[in-house]
Amino acid sequence: MFVDRIKVFAQAGNGGRGSVSFRREKFVPKGGPDGGDGGQGGDVILRADRHVDNLASLFYEPIVKAKNGSHGKGKKMAGRAGADKVVKIPVGTMVWRAEESQRPTRNSDQSAIHTPQSEIQPVVDLVRDEQEFVLCRGGEGGKGNVHFKSSRNRAPRQYTDGEEGEQGHFLLELRTIADAGLVGYPNAGKSTLLRKLSASRFDRRGTSWTWPGSRIFAPHHTLPHFDIRDRCRRERRTQSGRGFTESSEGN
Predict the structure, then answer these.
(1) pTM of whole model > 0.85?
(2) Which domains does the chain possess?
(3) 249 by DSSP, 3-state: which?
């Protein structure tokens, strides 16, 4: 299944809570506070990968979440940071915030291709291989009670909770149609060439375009391809044929 447009919910990890702890050691009376900080929450990262050709993986996993940070511990030990969630997407993917009221729609005139940048600003456009973008940042970890000690407060029991990670709905759209294209007149042999290069069988009905769902295997590459029909030329020939028929009937 080919997916080139998907809406996902991304949520970064929350920061861990700070610890309230006091030093307990033999021959060390009144050791003082030693509560550690909480770990930082994981980030949600988008990574462009040339080996991925569509957004089908997000179709089955529309909710993307990173791990939360661990809580702080005694002996000034900080909590473990949450693991980042790395999502691999195709090169040429654009990302918008889904909460925007003027986000592009497929069947409207405000398409992402034709809309000026002044009206709709995408969050990011991943155009290079291995390019990364932090979609949602994880929350900072909370502070332990070791940060609240002073000359007047020698046994603090205060701590802070970790911050919540960023979250939101996002719209991803793949702008790349194919890695290579064949341009030629009707009946020039474009479909025949693709059938010889791959195992696909094209639909020869009068559609504007078809997606065969096959691949052309080349050295070190896997190329997805479309069969683009020249609808404008077909409609022009149809209109010219109707005009000839009408003129013949009139004579």
Answers:
(1) no
(2) 1-176 (2.70.210.12), 190-250 (no CATH)
(3) helix
